[in-house]
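Ticket #4471: structure output looks truncated?

Reporter: J.K.
Steps to reproduce: submitted the chain below (325 residues) through the standard prediction queue, then opened the result file.
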Amino acid sequence: MLIRQTRLNDPKPSEITSQTLFEDRRRFLATAMAVGGGAALGSVGMIGGAQGAVIPKSGKFSGVAKTNYTVDDELTEYDAVTGYNNFYEFGTGKTDPATYSKDFQPRPWTVQVDGLCNKAGTYDFDDLVNPHQLEDRVYRFRCVEAWSMVVPWVGISLASILKRMEPHGNAKYVSFETLVDPEQMPGQKRKVLEWPYREGLRMDEAMHPLSFMVVGVYGEVLPNQNGAPMRLMVPWKYGFKSIKSIVRISFTEQEPQTSWNMSAAREYGFYSNVNPTVNHPRWSQAKERRIGDSLFDPKRPTLMFNGYEEDVASLYANMDLKAQF
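Returned output as attached by the reporter:
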């Protein structure tokens, strides 16, 4: 069940700048909309039906479909969404991505698709993400460090992209990789993690209607610090599963390696579902601080599967969510 949460205290004007976009507050429907197959592939690298349309390189989107994928929680303000986040390719501090990504060039952009699929190849971003399929979704975003946001994303169903690649029946997983370019991404000059950043999902997770490939936020093109030009959003999982600046998508039969599991397997499992009953070895996951709440207000209880339990719990039936965390 999705539970309405209200803001306990408005952010200080000195901390957050007001944002007027995305005022329409639509309720998330428990029965998520069915995912369509999307436009058919013409040839490798081209998607039929785009008719020459492209994602803008900056500014606001037009023609984004309004959807019922939303929650009643108050939105996190734009400057917090774009100014306080993790993107280790630009540094380990929460403000480092916004500070050090200004010269990053996310266009032109290509994505390599390989592995167990019929439509492997190198795809131009504007062919991979059909602008005619863009839609808005307001999702909760929960970070493993016990802070959270509510963010209005713009993007396209992940399933609509993956289905066009015609994955084979033995493709049980899909994995993703981030760009490696230390000159543009100065954080990669340090061995904080083993680059490239890697993430992966089970195929049924990736095909779930909630899984989303993001290309924008607050009705505008995705900023560099938030993972331009495209990033993943799986709202029932912790934020580090939401890999940014994706350049490779691979279909595999075996469970792929993921960056944080490679770095600290005891702390970061493959599934990484938001689960308040499973503590991180160094802190509790039972409560969270919503960005924008006052430090004097009590933390909020963490919701199972980040509040999406009714929609995704069936994916993990008969699994031990403490052992397979």
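Triage note (M.O.): checked the attachment and the full token line is present. Confidence is low (pLDDT under 50) at residues 1-44, 46-52.
Status: closed, working as intended.
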